[in-house]
């Protein structure tokens, strides 16, 4: 128990300094040492939350209340994770369960108010969620756009592959605008797995690869996009730029 407490306190120290990657490392060590302690799961849940890892945050929060059904912080963390995952209905349900445990908890009350307000703004269906994402994108609110696109994906019928490919492409571009190139590449790759003729996904993945300095991966995407749409100026300029850069690199290596 002493070693577990030491590990947890190391995590707490890093969390208080907002060094969340290090906090995650030490909380995980504490969980490995003793996975029966409910409080450390909410600590790690809060850490995941601050790292924008909301599914992981939800998982740990649910584990905490499974270990201790009277643990108010667990219900709060579940509610906040669901809220970030675009599910205010589940957020409200969890926060209400928390208030049954501790009716006067102000933090849970505030969370419930947030969830209820979010429920009023919730999209009617997957098309509405996508439109909200598009609206945020046009306003350069890229982080909000990602949230709406993610919710659109969660709400979309699995068989509507064309819709899913379009949303992945849009979310990929939102990630690219935030310089999150790995996420952009992942979304565009998934979109291209659905529709290999998705010219926007090719272009956006190519641009992300270029910024990552993976020029040999960027050039084929740009060429493919240009072949599909010869009038696309961005692709044409990209092919010229990448070809020139690769030639210069080859010359330097000789």
* Annotation field: number of helices: 14
Q: What's the end-to-end separation, in Å?
A: 61 Å
Mean pLDDT: 95
Number of strands: 0
| C-alpha-based Rg, rounded | 22 Å
| Spans where pLDDT lies below 50 across 5 or more residues | none
Query: What is the N-to-C order of secondary-structure elements (H for helix, E for strand)?
Result: HHHHHHHHHHHHHH
Q: What amount of the residues lies in strands? A: under 5%
Helix content: over 70%
Largest sheet: none
Q: Which shape, going by the Cα principal axes? A: globular
Protein structure class: mainly alpha
Structural overview:
81% of the residues lie in helices and 0% in strands. With 254 residues, the protein is mainly α. The longest helix is centred in the last third of the chain and has 21 residues, at 233-253. The termini are far apart.
Task: Give a quick summary of the entry.
With 254 residues, the chain is an all-alpha fold.
Main attributes of the structure:
14 helices; mainly alpha; 254 residues; 0% strand; globular
Topology:
Blueprint: H1 2-16, H2 20-33, H3 38-50, H4 54-67, H5 72-84, H6 88-101, H7 106-121, H8 126-138, H9 142-155, H10 161-177, H11 181-194, H12 199-211, H13 215-228, H14 233-253
Helix pairs in contact: 1-2, 2-3, 3-4, 3-5, 4-5, 5-6, 5-7, 6-7, 8-9, 8-10, 9-10, 10-11, 10-12, 11-12, 12-13, 13-14
């Amino acid at each position: 128990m002493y070693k577990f407490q030491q590990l947890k306190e190391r995590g707490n120290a890093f969390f208080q300094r907002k060094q969340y990657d290090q906090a995650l490392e030490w909380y995980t060590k504490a969980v490995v040492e003793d996975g029966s302690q409910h409080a450390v799961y909410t600590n790690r849940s809060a850490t995941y939350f601050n790292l924008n890892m909301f599914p992981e945050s939800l998982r740990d929060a649910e584990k905490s209340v499974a270990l201790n059904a009277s643990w108010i912080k667990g219900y709060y963390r579940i509610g906040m994770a669901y809220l970030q995952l675009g599910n205010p209905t589940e957020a409200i349900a969890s926060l209400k369960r928390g208030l049954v445990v501790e009716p006067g908890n102000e933090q849970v009350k505030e969370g419930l108010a947030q969830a209820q307000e979010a429920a009023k703004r919730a999209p009617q269906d997957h098309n509405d969620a996508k439109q909200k994402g598009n609206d945020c994108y046009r306003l350069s609110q890229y982080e909000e756009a990602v949230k709406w696109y993610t919710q659109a994906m969660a709400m979309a019928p699995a068989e509507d592959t064309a819709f899913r490919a379009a949303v992945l492409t849009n979310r990929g571009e939102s990630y690219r605008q935030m310089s999150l190139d790995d996420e952009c590449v992942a979304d565009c790759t998934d979109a291209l797995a659905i529709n290999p003729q998705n010219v926007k996904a090719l272009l956006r993945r190519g641009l992300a690869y270029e910024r990552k300095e993976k020029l040999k991966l960027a050039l084929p995407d740009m060429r493919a996009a240009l072949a599909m749409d010869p009038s696309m100026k961005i692709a044409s300029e990209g092919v010229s730029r990448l070809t020139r850069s690769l030639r210069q690199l080859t010359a330097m290596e000789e």
